[in-house]
C-alpha cells in the first residue's frame, strides 16, 4: 500500500483550482463534460483528491454531500447518477461498483491518515457490501460486476458482463483488512489476467464492456470500443505499482496516437474514433513510457491547468502518484 502521508502529492494551488472549477459549495463533484451531472465515481474521485491534497475541510464537505445524496440504497452502496435538473435528483438508483470502490477507498485512506474511526467504519461497511453484492465466481475467475443489477448471467444472455476499468487495483489491499471475507487479492489477479487476455483487433486493446459468457468479446448492445472509461486501465495498474512492462507497453502503444495523444479505438477494425489531446489524457501514456522505458514526464504535462472534469481528474491522479511513488519520472 502507498504511504498515508499526502502532504506533497497535490499542491494547495492545484487543489484550489480543481475544487473551484468542479466542486460546488455543497460538496457535489460536477462532471462538466456530461451535462453537469454528478455520479458516485466523481464523488469518490473528489474524496480521494481532497485527501491527497491534505484538505480535510473539503473532504468533509464532499463526504457530507455524498452520504446525504448518494447513499440512499438499502444495501449500503451508492446510487450512481445525480442530475441537478431532475426531481428527484437521483435518476438511476443502480450502483456503479467503481464509484463504490473509490468512495470506500478514499474513506479508508483518510480515516487511517487522520485517525478518524467514523471514516474507517463506513469504508468497512461499503467494502463488505461490494464483496457481498458485486463480486462473483465465474469459470475459475473472481469477477467484479459493474452494478448489482443488469450485468449478471441471469440478467442478460451474454452475462456476466464486466468493465475492466472498474477494477481500482490500489484499493484492494485496503479492502483485504476491511472486508476479509472477500478474496480481494484474487479479484485483482483475475482482473489483471482478463486485461492480458482481452486483446481485440489490430491494436490488441480490451473493449470497454466485456462479455465473459464464453470467450471474452464485446458485450451485446455496447459499442466495440476501447473508450473513455478504458483509458484508466493502465493508470490504475501503475497506481497499484503493477509494473508489468509487457502489458503496459501493449496498452500504451494501442491507445496512443502518432503525436502522443490518446485515441478512442474501434477494437474490431482499429479505426480511430476520437483523439484526445488534453494534458490529463496525454500524461497516461507518458507515465507508461516512464515505467516501461525510463522516459521523463514532459514538463508541459506536469503543469496542472483544469480543463474538463474527467481529464483534470486523471491528471491529478497521475501527478499525485508520480510524486508519491515515481519521483524518477520527473
UniProtKB/TrEMBL annotation:
Q: Quote the catalytic activity from the record.
A: Endohydrolysis of (1->4)-beta-D-glucosidic linkages in cellulose, lichenin and cereal beta-D-glucans
Its keywords, alphabetically, are: Carbohydrate metabolism, Cellulose degradation, Glycosidase, Hydrolase, Polysaccharide degradation
Q: Quote the InterPro entries the UniProt record gives.
A: 6-hairpin_glycosidase_sf, 6hp_glycosidase-like_sf, Glyco_hydro_8
Top-level taxonomic group: Bacteria
Q: What is its EC number?
A: 3.2.1.4
Provide the top EC class: hydrolase
Please give the family membership noted in the entry: Belongs to the glycosyl hydrolase 8 (cellulase D) family.
Q: What is this protein called?
A: cellulase
Amino acid at each position: 500500500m502507498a504511504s498515508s502521508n499526502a502532504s506533497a502529492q497535490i499542491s494547495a494551488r492545484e487543489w484550489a483550482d480543481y475544487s473551484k472549477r468542479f466542486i460546488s459549495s455543497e460538496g457535489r463533484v460536477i462532471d462538466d463534460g456530461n451535462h453537469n451531472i454528478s455520479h458516485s465515481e466523481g464523488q469518490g474521485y473528489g474524496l480521494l483528491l481532497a485527501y491527497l491534497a491534505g484538505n480535510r475541510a473539503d473532504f468533509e464537505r464532499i463526504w457530507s454531500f455524498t452520504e446525504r445524496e448518494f447513499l440512499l440504497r438499502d444495501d449500503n452502496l451508492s446510487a450512481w447518477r445525480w442530475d441537478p435538473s431532475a426531481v428527484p435528483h437521483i435518476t438511476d438508483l443502480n450502483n456503479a461498483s467503481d464509484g463504490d470502490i473509490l468512495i470506500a477507498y478514499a474513506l479508508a485512506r483518510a480515516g487511517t491518515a487522520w485517525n478518524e474511526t467514523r471514516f474507517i467504519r463506513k469504508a468497512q461497511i461499503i467494502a463488505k457490501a461490494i464483496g457481498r453484492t458485486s463480486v462473483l465466481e465465474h469459470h475459475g475467475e473472481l469477477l467484479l460486476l459493474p452494478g448489482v443489477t443488469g450485468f449478471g448471467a441471469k440478467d442478460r444472455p451474454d452475462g456476466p458482463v464486466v468493465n475492466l476499468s472498474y477494477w481500482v487495483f490500489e484499493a484492494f489491499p485496503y479492502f483485504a483488512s476491511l472486508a476479509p471475507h472477500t478474496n480481494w487479492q484474487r479479484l485483482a489477479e483475475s482482473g489483471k489476467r482478463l486485461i492480458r487476455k482481452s486483446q481485440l483487433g489490430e491494436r490488441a486493446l480490451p473493449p470497454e464492456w466485456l462479455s465473459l459468457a464464453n470467450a471474452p468479446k464485446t458485450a451485446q448492445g455496447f459499442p466495440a470500443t476501447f473508450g473513455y472509461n478504458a483509458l484508466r486501465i493502465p493508470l490504475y495498474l501503475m497506481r497499484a505499482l503493477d509494473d508489468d512492462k509487457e502489458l503496459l507497453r501493449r496498452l500504451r502503444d494501442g491507445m496512443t496516437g502518432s503525436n502522443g495523444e490518446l485515441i478512442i479505438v474501434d477494437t474490431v477494425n482499429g479505426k480511430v474514433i476520437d483523439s484526445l489531446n488534453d494534458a490529463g489524457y496525454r500524461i497516461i501514456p507518458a507515465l507508461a513510457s516512464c515505467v516501461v522505458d525510463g522516459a521523463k514526464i514532459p514538463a508541459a504535462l506536469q503543469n496542472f491547468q483544469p480543463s474538463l472534469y474527467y481529464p483534470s481528474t486523471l491528471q491529478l491522479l497521475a501527478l499525485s502518484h508520480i510524486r508519491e511513488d515515481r519521483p524518477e519520472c520527473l
